[in-house]
Amino acid sequence: MTADWEPGVEDIKAMRAEAGGADLRAFMRQQIAAGKARREKPPAPKPPPPPGHRPGAWPAGSSPPGPPPDWEIPAHVWQAAARHHSNEIHRPDLPCDCGNCPEETP
Predict the structure, then answer these.
(1) d(Cα 2, Cα 71) in Å, to the nearest integer?
(2) In angstroms, rounded to a whole number, what is the distance separating the alpha carbons of residues 17 and 22?
(3) pLDDT digits (tens, 9 = 90+) for 7-47
(4) Which of 27, 25, 20 lies closest to 5, judged by CA?
(5) Who wins on pLDDT, 93 or 106?
(6) Greater pLDDT, 1 or 28
(7) Burial class of residue 38 (count of CB atoms within 10 Å of its CB; 0-12, 13-18, 19+)
(8) CA distances from 10 to 3, 23, 41, 52 (A)
(9) CA angle at residue 24 from 22 to 26, to 5 degrees?
(10) DSSP states of 31-58 as a string?
(11) Assuming Cys at both sites, which of 23, 38, 49, 69 could form a disulfide with 15, CB separation 3.0 to 4.6 Å?
């Protein structure tokens, strides 16, 4: 049988008469299954599990080490550098008042 075949009245009568109507029931179940197969999309494949090691990540339950001791800059030096940078960006035509710049002599 092909999917395009439509049974006529005589075909239905013949299926009903054969095997006590079992052929008609089987035919109808086949038609329902074919319709569901066309309608339902197959389930999407499950994504693969993540690898045991995530590149670039620290192990679970741990943290990265702190900065090296030579990176510990005192707060006043850091604030002066930030102020100097701000002066250069926002007030380039005025003398810098960060306290670290040498006085400009005319």
Answers:
(1) 78
(2) 9
(3) 788 888 888 888 788 888 888 898 888 888 787 777 889 98
(4) 27
(5) 93
(6) 28
(7) exposed
(8) 19, 14, 35, 65
(9) 70
(10) HHHHHHHHHSPPPPPPPPPPPSS-TTPP
(11) 23
Radius of gyration of the chain (CA): 41
Task: Quote the pLDDT of residue 1.
Answer: 47
Rounded to whole angstroms, the Cα distance separating 74 from 53 reads 38
- Structure tokens given for 3: 């999917």
Tokens of 38: 């066309």
At residue 55 the predicted structure's pLDDT band, cuts being 50, 70 and 90, is: low
Structure tokens at 43: 């389930």
Q: What is the mean pLDDT of residues 86-97?
A: 83
Residues 97 and 86 sit within 8 Å (Cβ to Cβ): no
Specify the pLDDT at position 68. Answer: 67
In angstroms, the CA 53 to CA 59 distance is 8
